[in-house]
């Protein structure tokens, strides 16, 4: 548990070599009781912990680990006055103890990624040594001649240093919070130039920051070969990145459970929702409610299959069983379609529907429409309760700093594009935000956005 640092990498590979399973927890909790809850949920025998610097946290931490029958602890950072083992003391020891390391089997569990918890409770996604060391992600982004940059957290599949080490290429990393602040994009670009990075991974919101600071960025006279992005369906405005800030930009599609399954190079001709070609070793198809394969042109759930996917959910046999079809296809929960010419399009989440009265409104379609309006930086659409309709549609919008869009103007643009909020798909409510709450990995925290929206609208659950 902790932030991106070299001690994390040393500790993680030590865990692998010892034949244990490394659990990647979502950062360090601000309250120590939450840290204890995560440790209990993972059933950890030991923990490498990067502690908070807050005195109350450190005091509670020290008291906890000095009790009997608690996990063993090694600190990744040594706070002043805390008497607990520190990894620096272990690494600097003059004599290395003689240790007989076990033979690790390919089918043995290697690590567990915890999901962001956007659905309320983080899931524990388990991978084997075979899946980790043979995954296309080890050489998907780059070769040994490339220098890559990723600000993503180490505890996230898209940010783990494991694949760059297995693939044998250098990786530049930072504190993930740096790129989350839009005003830091010039500083990040300076890092890329200084380290001569050829490939960089940036979330769509960071790419928007590039476009907003175009003059200051381009004056640095630096371009990486590739920019990789993902995490959401990219808007058409991101096509302007290619050729201007890099030679090529591509977007990837996947999730914690499956890894990266597809990629598509973004150009002016890229259709919204098209996720590109399958990564070698992956298969995809569309199924209906009866799990039967659907023909091209029919919309249904996307299922994926590959040797590199998750082994299952740790200590959750029912969840594991429900997440796969009989023939080992993983249910992504995404709605999509294959066209006659073999293109895979993602249309949204299976749960990506707001039921307003008798109408089913697809959240992703409304978000995409609003995101392409002039003056809109970012938008999130959430369902809010309604006593008569059960649910209603609320658009949460971040505008460009110099934009003067009003609720009335946004409503008119929505009505022109999506029709009204009775027979059409337009939102009923429009709320202006300065920023959106996010998880440690940069993903949008929709649960808290919905809570904030209900507070702003003075609504309560019905």
Biggest sheet details: 7 strands, mixed
Number of strands: 22
Oligomer: single chain
Number of helices, where a helix is a run of at least 4 consecutive DSSP H or I residues: 15
Helices and strands, with pairings:
Elements: H1 6-17, E1 22-24, H2 32-42, E2 46-49, H3 55-65, E3 72-75, H4 87-91, E4 109-114, E5 124-128, H5 129-134, H6 137-140, E6 148-150, H7 162-167, E7 171-172, H8 177-180, H9 185-194, E8 199-201, H10 204-212, H11 214-218, E9 226-229, E10 248-255, E11 259-265, E12 277-278, E13 283-287, E14 300-305, E15 312-313, H12 317-322, E16 330-338, E17 344-349, E18 353-356, E19 359-362, H13 363-371, E20 376-386, E21 390-399, H14 407-418, E22 429-432, H15 446-457
Parallel strand pairs: 1-4, 2-3, 6-7, 6-8, 8-9, 9-10, 21-22
Antiparallel strand pairs: 4-5, 5-15, 10-11, 11-12, 13-14, 14-16, 16-17, 18-19, 20-21
Can you give me a brief rundown of this structure?
This protein is α/β, with parallel strands linked by helices. The chain contains 15 helices and 22 strands.
Structure in words:
The chain has 462 residues and is an alpha/beta fold. It folds into three domains: 6-104, no CATH class; 131-349, ANL, N-terminal domain (Rossmann fold), CATH 3.40.50.12780; 353-457, GMP Synthetase, Chain A, domain 3. The chain contains 15 helices and 22 strands. It has helices spanning 6-17, 32-42, 55-65, 87-91, 129-134, 137-140, 162-167, 177-180, 185-194, 204-212, 214-218, 317-322, 363-371, 407-418, 446-457, and strands at residues 22-24, 46-49, 72-75, 109-114, 124-128, 148-150, 171-172, 199-201, 226-229, 248-255, 259-265, 277-278, 283-287, 300-305, 312-313, 330-338, 344-349, 353-356, 359-362, 376-386, 390-399, 429-432. Strand 21, helix 14 and strand 22 form a beta-alpha-beta unit. The longest helix is centred in the N-terminal third of the chain and has 12 residues, at 6-17. It is globular and about 75 Å long. The two termini are 38 Å apart.
């Amino acid at each position: 548990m902790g932030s991106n640092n070299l001690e994390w990498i040393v500790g993680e590979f030590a865990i692998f070599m010892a034949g244990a399973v490394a659990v990647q927890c979502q950062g360090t909790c601000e309250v120590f009781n939450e840290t204890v809850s995560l440790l209990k949920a993972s059933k950890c025998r030991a923990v490498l912990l990067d502690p908070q610097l807050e005195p109350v946290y450190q005091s509670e931490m020290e008291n906890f680990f000095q009790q009997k029958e608690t996990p063993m602890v090694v600190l990744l950072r040594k706070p002043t006055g805390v008497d607990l083992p520190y990894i620096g003391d272990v690494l600097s020891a003059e004599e290395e103890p003689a240790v007989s390391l076990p033979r690790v089997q390919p089918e043995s569990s290697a690590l567990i990624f915890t999901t962001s918890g956007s659905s309320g409770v983080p899931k524990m996604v388990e991978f084997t040594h075979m899946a980790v060391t043979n995954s296309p992600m080890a050489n998907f982004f780059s070769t040994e001649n490339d220098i890559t940059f990723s600000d993503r957290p180490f505890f996230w599949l898209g940010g783990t240093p494991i694949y760059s080490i297995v693939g044998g290429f250098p990786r530049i990393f930072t504190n993930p919070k740096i790129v989350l602040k839009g005003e830091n994009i010039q500083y990040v670009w300076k890092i890329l130039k200084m380290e001569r990075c050829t490939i960089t991974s940036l979330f769509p919101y960071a790419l928007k920051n590039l476009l907003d600071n175009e003059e200051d960025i381009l004056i640095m006279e630096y371009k990486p070969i590739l920019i990789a992005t993902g995490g959401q369906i990219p808007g058409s405005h991101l096509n302007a990145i290619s050729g201007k800030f890099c030679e090529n930009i591509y977007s990837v599609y996947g999730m914690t459970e499956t890894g990266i399954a597809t990629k598509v190079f973004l150009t002016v001709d890229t259709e919204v929702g098209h996720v590109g070609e399958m990564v070698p070793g992956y298969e995809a198809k569309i199924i209906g409610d009866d799990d039967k394969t659907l023909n091209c042109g029919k919309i249904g759930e996307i299922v994926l299959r590959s040797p590199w996917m998750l082994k299952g959910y740790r200590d959750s046999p029912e969840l594991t069983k429900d997440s796969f079809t009989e023939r080992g296809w993983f249910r992504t929960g995404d709605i999509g379609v294959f066209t006659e010419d073999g293109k895979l399009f993602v249309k949204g989440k299976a749960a990506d529907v707001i039921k307003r009265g008798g109408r089913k409104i697809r959240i992703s379609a409304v978000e995409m429409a609003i995101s392409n309006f002039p003056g809109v930086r970012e938008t999130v659409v959430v369902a809010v309760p309604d006593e008569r309709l059960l649910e209603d549609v609320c658009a949460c919008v971040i505008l460009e700093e110099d934009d003067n869009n009003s609720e009335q103007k946004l409503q008119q643009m929505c009505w022109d594009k999506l029709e009204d909020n009775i027979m059409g798909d337009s939102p009923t409510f429009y709320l202006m935000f300065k920023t959106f709450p996010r998880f440690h990995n940069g993903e949008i925290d929709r649960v808290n956005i919905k809570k904030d929206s209900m507070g702003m609208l003075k609504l309560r659950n019905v």
